[in-house]
């Protein structure tokens, strides 16, 4: 699990899509703060996390707290996008090989959720 978490932090520093693809398990699940149903499968999770990296991955993004318990990690982040301060949590469960098995994002306040929804929708358009 520690290797998976370290790899996640490396990805966040450089947004290396190849590294991210290696980090996601085939049967991974992504839980979006704005999409009702879980997004299942490596390709789906990869597309959502890649889009999130484009939306949130700017110079203001930083983790402010990290809690680790076995295969689970809770990473609290803060970022500013288009003048909106976004506070969120990445809740990640890793499998025995250190790959992402389950990824849940929670965001606050409502203004931030609306901004993320708007920008993620634009990124995920076909």
Automatic annotation (TrEMBL):
Domain of life, per lineage: Bacteria
Domain SnoaL-like: 8-101
Pfam family, one: SnoaL_2
SUPFAM superfamilies: NTF2-like (SSF54427)
InterPro entries the record matches: NTF2-like_dom_sf, SnoaL-like
The name this protein goes by in its record: SnoaL-like domain-containing protein
Species this protein is from: Novosphingobium nitrogenifigens DSM 19370
């Amino acid at each position: 699990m520690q290797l998976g978490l370290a790899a996640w932090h490396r990805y966040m520093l450089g947004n290396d899509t190849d590294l991210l693809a290696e980090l996601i398990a085939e049967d991974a699940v992504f839980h979006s703060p704005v999409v009702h149903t879980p997004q299942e499968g490596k390709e789906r999770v990869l597309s959502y996390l890649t889009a999130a990296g484009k939306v949130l991955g700017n110079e203001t993004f930083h983790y402010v707290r990290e809690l680790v318990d076995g295969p689970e990690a809770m990473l609290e982040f803060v970022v500013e996008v288009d003048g909106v301060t976004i506070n969120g949590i990445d809740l990640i469960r890793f499998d025995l090989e250190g790959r992402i098995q389950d990824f849940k994002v929670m965001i606050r306040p409502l203004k931030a959720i609306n901004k993320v929804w708007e920008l993620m929708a634009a990124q995920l358009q076909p």
